[in-house]
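Dear U.,

For the methods section draft, I wanted the exact inputs and outputs in one place so we can describe them consistently. I've listed the two proteins in the order they'll appear in the manuscript figures. Please don't edit the token lines directly; just add comments below if something needs changing.

First protein:
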Amino acid sequence: MKRRTLLTGALVAAATAARAEAPPAAPATVVPVLTYHRFDPHQSHSGTIVTTPVFAEQMAYLATRQVRVAPLRDILPVAHGASLPGPTVSITADDGWRTVYTDMFPIIREHKFPITLFINPPMIGRGGAYLTWPMITEMLKSGLVDVQAHTLHHPNFNTERARRDPTAYQAFVTSEIAGCRAPITEALGLPADMLAWPFGIHDATLEQAARDAGYIAAFALGSRPLANGDPAFALPRLQIYDTDHAERFAWIVAGHARTPIKKAIS
């Protein structure tokens, strides 16, 4: 009952936000890739947490404004010069937190919005904070959820490079990037051919390792939408915060860059 009350309040707030004047839409050659991590019904005590009512408000805004929510795979041609008909966004969620199932999934299912989850396979089923494979399988059956790779253990590649000799570091990179594809494919029967860089860290060496491992694209972070000409292994995404609502969320969805917010991102 408490969650239903929260979501009802969120939808009322969303209707109010939807009546706000939206900023001019950017050309359809840009697509904001909205990135989430964790959710909480009541409070955001971390930069990676969006409260559930705010997320409900954001999704209601997309539905009210008739913004197309496209599967992540469908927007890849934009980086190669394609354009899309009308305003479009994609939605991703990193790390495999349990609240993706308890809080995010009911809302995207209500709106029939597709999402892509980037997971670290060894974390699935570990403790009460993370998704389980049965939860993921249930979400897959909806036809709205895709699951892709976020490396094996979510390393900070800058730190790991500093503490290893070049040979050991290269072996570590191969294990983290190539080694996380098979567990996803074995557990879910998915190709796992897209990668999200932990902490958004990437460089030429890491990008080449992703190519060698058979990925077709890799996503970083950033403060702007994906656009024509973006490199396939450093595609930008916009981290979404609990403060991104009303005019601020509308600005992002319209395809505009924003001033970076300095918060801890995982």
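Second protein (the one for the lower panel):
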Amino acid sequence: MAYATINDPSVYFQNTLYTGNGNNGQDITNTGNANLQPDLIWIKNRSANSNPIIQDTSRGINVQSFTDGNASENTNASWGHVNSVATDGFQVDVGNNSSETNANKNGDNYVAWQWKANGGTTSSNSDGSVTSTVQVNATAGFSIVLYTATGSGDITVGHGLGAVPEMILTKTRSVSYDWRVFNKTLGAGKSLQLDGTGQQSTNNSYPSPAPTSTVMTMGRGGDDNNNYANGETIVSYCFRSIKGYSKIGTYSGNNNADGPFVYTGFKPAWLLIKNYTNSGNGWTLTDNARSPLNQATKYLLANTADSESTGVKIDFLSNGFKLRATAQNESQSYIYMAFAQNPLVASNNVIALAR
């Protein structure tokens, strides 16, 4: 029996490496098996300290947010950014400042992580107490959700997935406020901060109840009393696991070089890991583009401007990943989100091979 129905994950997700040329209008072409016109692009400079930037086609591709801080979104023409998307890639600019490092500084190396939603086409969703604007790819378990706070306490927001989201990244767009991350392992009333290193917290939290197949509850509990005032605009990126394509889960570290094996059901292409029981640990990002062979040692942090480092040791296997060092493997608990290079067994009965 086939394990997955997404035979080629590159239809919905790709990692792409490129080198900046210092000019406005550099076209970046994706290199996956399939053409991918991205709807969510997350870019990080590998060579120099620079803000990790997120842009999407729901807000407008020129609007950018940084995952290493709480600043409101911006369209500052002086900063490097994604200028447009294409049928198989995107275009980057340096803006008005040729020394800007975010997206296209001459000679700097970059990685772009990209997800496909619905080609920029959005729809109105009235499942919650406020109306949201959603761009949904139910097949790939991903939606982009835009909505406006009312300032009257908890609100419910339709996310459009048609199933329960397992990971939600949320940022207030119109004011400076920290990123909030819901994860199914944390449960209702707890969250993490994407632009920080803290452990799970009931401050800065998603209130109860947990998300359902139609809505997520957003509120002003904990230290959110000054957030979500009337008229504030918000974006949420919602994900759920899709068999053989993506996996959101948890594991326990053992603090030695023979670390745990984590089963995903596919060969990973991209992996995000966070320690949620102990503070002082960042959001580690590894992928098969920067580390095409085992062990994957190159990592970036979503929560800092730091350039690429080495130190993690992770094997990307045909059916999951294995920790080979104490990095991201202390005797603590971790959450992760992974996307596939190949499913273990697809509907065409092609079997993934280890690296």
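Candidate sentences for the figure legend, describing the second protein: Residues 246-343 form one domain. The radius of gyration is 19 Å.

Thanks,
Y.
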